[in-house]
Amino acid sequence: MHYDRALERRIQGRLHDFEALARQYDHGWASLNLASLVAPWFAPHELFEGLADQPDELPGLLPDFEAHVVATVRTRLQTLTEKDILALSGAGALFGLMRASTLTEKVAPDIKGRLLLLFPGRHENGVYRLLDARDGWTYRAIPIPA
């Protein structure tokens, strides 16, 4: 579901409405805020302190961070059934750290039910753009505009 980035707080605040509707139509619901994965992974990392002095070292950590995010989403997906929806919010926090398209491509085989990626950005001519800033991706998804 793509929406204007200015609506991020409103969307976060209304997730319970999405859940209520899903349950009303006999779907299970689980959610994961991707933003909550960033600080707990980077802060205890042995290289964290040095990143302030040498920020160009960050790209070396990104493959491990990406693997962590993918593994976390996969673990959550494995607990769900074909009737369940996993809502991923906080995708904007991944900007500059990993591509949302990489995440969806890597977890796609693990999706039994539905994956709802709440996406601050836009969908235009079949291409998604996170935070309207980066080249997007085409994906076999159905866009749900705000």
Strand content: 15-25%
| Number of helical segments with 4 or more residues | 6
Let me know the average pLDDT. Answer: 82
Number of domain modules: 1
Please give a structural write-up.
With 146 residues, the protein is α/β, with parallel strands linked by helices. It has one domain (2-130). Helix content is 37%, strand content 19%. The protein has helices at residues 8-13, 15-24, 38-42, 48-51, 58-78, 100-107; strands spanning 2-3, 28-33, 84-89, 114-117, 119-124, 127-130. A 3-stranded mixed β-sheet has the order 1-5-6, with no helix packed on it. A 3-stranded parallel β-sheet has the order 2-3-4, with helices on both faces. The radius of gyration is 16 Å and the shape is globular.
TL;DR of this structure?
With 146 residues, this protein is an alpha/beta fold. It has 6 helices and 6 strands, in the order βααβαααβαβββ.
Write the layout of secondary structure elements.
Blueprint lengths: L1 E2 L4 H6 L1 H10 L3 E6 L4 H5 L5 H4 L6 H21 L5 E6 L10 H8 L6 E4 L1 E6 L2 E4 L16
Parallel strand pairs: 1-5, 2-3, 3-4
Antiparallel strand pairs: 5-6
Please give a handful of descriptors for the protein shown:
146 residues, three-stranded mixed sheet, three-stranded parallel sheet
